[in-house]
Amino acid sequence: VILGVTVRPVRSCFVLFDPFLPGMEQSIEQTTEVLLCLSPGEAADLKEGINFLRNKKTGKDFILYKNKNRVRACKNVCKHQGGLFIKDIEDLDGRSVRCTKHNWRLDVSTMKYVNPPGSFCQDELVVEMDEENGLLLLELNPPNPWDSEPRSPEHLAFGEVQITYLTHACMDLKLGDKRMVFDPWLTGPAFARGWWLLHEPPSDWLERLCQADLIYISHMHSDHLSYPTLKELAGRRPDIPIYVGNTERPVFWNLNQSGVQLTNINIVPFGIWQQVDKNLRFMILMDGVHPEMDTCIIVEYKGHKILNTVDCTRPNGGRLPEKVALMMSDFAGGASGFPMTFSGGKFTEEWKAQFIKAERKKLLNYKARLVKDLQPRIYCPFAGYFVESHPSDKYIKETNIKNDPNELNNLIKKNSDVVTWTPRPGATLDLSRMLKDPTDSKGIIEPPEGTKIYKDSWDFEPYLNILNAAVGDEIFLHSSWIKEYFTWAGFKDYNLVVRMIETDEDFSPFPGGYDYLVDFLDLSFPKERPSREHPYEEIRSRVDVIRHVVKNGLLWDDLYIGFQTRLQRSPDIYHHLFWNHFQIKLPLTPPNWRSFLMHCG
Question: Where does the Rieske domain start and stop, copy by copy (predicted)?
């Protein structure tokens, strides 16, 4: 119980039946798929070390690593964002491959990623020898959870299922006589002060939220879990049912600190249908790259599926339902401080511009290929409509170029028969009409003539005042807060030295601000960098944001994704364990500053 809020782990909500009761066992079973067959001669020709192979019939690529009589194998797909691996020319031992997208490196002798260090393991395939000494590459596929209790699509009347776009990742779904809303961010900033809404939400957005029967929030990032939005909603309907996945880090981990009074938060397990009524059910799935925090959702009404992959890098590990009625996903890119906030070494303005251009193109191609593979009837790009509108972030706004949804939709239409929809605030898609005839003029109702589409002003002051209040907090009168904070954070035994510098708006040292070193090998705070060999990062942070984050025990996404830092590093290596800890794994309760101040007193 949190502030009178009952946070309920549930197995099934509004249960009409339980498919796992005795006598109602599922008929679906695990399947084994043969991905590649090697003849005895081809198997004998495998060289020691790395072998790149392709199934000519399917066009799929694989990597085999041979060490004497043992063979390990995996798909030639990077776990990060689906890039293709090639030979790593810097690897003299012949065990590593490099991704063509972001230079991630995989040691195929261990199936562990070595860049970034301490990050992921690659999913292995089963290697079997047949009776004639040929080799088979097998993939064991667990049953698709959405295939349990399958339902055939039923007739939909015009207007029975309508999807209205509000802004960013927020959709308002009318499903028969039920209303469901996705990820309501409709007011205020996200990531401290770095992101602001690009689109002007419909004027009745709060009424729409209040009328919802249920809300799905995909993950804890503040462009999806918007406490300013939920505060407005809680003022009218604190008991509105909200559903989240059972992630390792709870979506509402910071509810106490937020002060938002919500009393009906439901935590549901992954891969199990949640029954709303006889026609409507939904299923939450985890992300394959960030299962500790990211989720996606399938909503099914009368057998018609709507797939929302939200921000997932590899939703459900890449296994998703095909031929759904409607699919929506992110598309824009730019949701990271890399590389715009980096400087030094290769990070020239020219390099950053070329990198961003190439990355956006890769993302477009990846999304287009995913849509082509899944073949939804209709596709909608969303969850990318934000802008760095604060004047202090002019540089980020000008350099952090994002993908155009129309460019993605044109690419999809060029390679498939999928119908596409570029949404505008207040526009409504009638699913029945669009499935029957995509050219129906009433299939998509655009907002009325003269409706304001793009925001041209933002109310910065109240949110910046909250941040600025932390600057003069009594905590920061005592330099021992540094040791207190990083001891609370709990990250150590890692060879990395970080210099933290508090800055003004322009990232120049803040007068009277702190400038200090943290050695994470022994969690010490030396005056000078140690003499041993060590990686080094310099992190300049705007003083209002870093102190707000420190005081409230918030995650560093506000700093990094919110563009509130400027970084340099030597060598140029992404320290996954460090950033993953401060962005995801910090303690669930903030530092005990009251006790700290009493001790100082």
Answer: 38-136
What would the pLDDT profile of 120-168 be if each residue is shown by its tens digit? 899 999 999 888 889 999 998 889 999 999 999 999 999 999 999 999 9
Q: Token pair 């799935």 is at which residue?
A: 285
Q: Is 378 helix (H, G, I), strand (E, B) or coil?
A: strand
pLDDT digits (tens, 9 = 90+) for 268-285: 999 999 999 999 999 999
Which fold does the domain 160-458 belong to in CATH?
Answer: Metallo-beta-lactamase; Chain A (3.60.15)
Question: Which CATH architecture is the domain 472-600 placed in?
Answer: 2-Layer Sandwich (3.30)
Distance CA 349, CA 566 (A): 14
CA dihedral for 211, 212, 218, 219, sign (positive or negative): positive
Residues 6+ apart with CB under 8 A from 355: 339
Long-range Cβ contact pairs of 450-457 (< 8 A, separation 24 or more): 451/424, 451/425, 451/426, 452/200, 453/199, 453/200, 453/424, 453/425, 454/198, 454/199, 454/200, 455/196, 455/197, 455/198, 455/199, 455/200, 455/387, 455/389
pLDDT at 24 over 50: no
CATH architecture of 31-141: 3-layer Sandwich (2.102)
Q: Are 397 and 387 in contact (CB under 8 A)?
A: yes
Q: What is the pLDDT of residue 28?
A: 56
Taking the domains of the chain in order of start, what are their residue ranges? 31-141, 160-458, 472-600
For residue 183, which phi and psi values (nearest 5 degrees)?
A: 40, 70
Residue 352 has pLDDT above 90, yes or no: yes
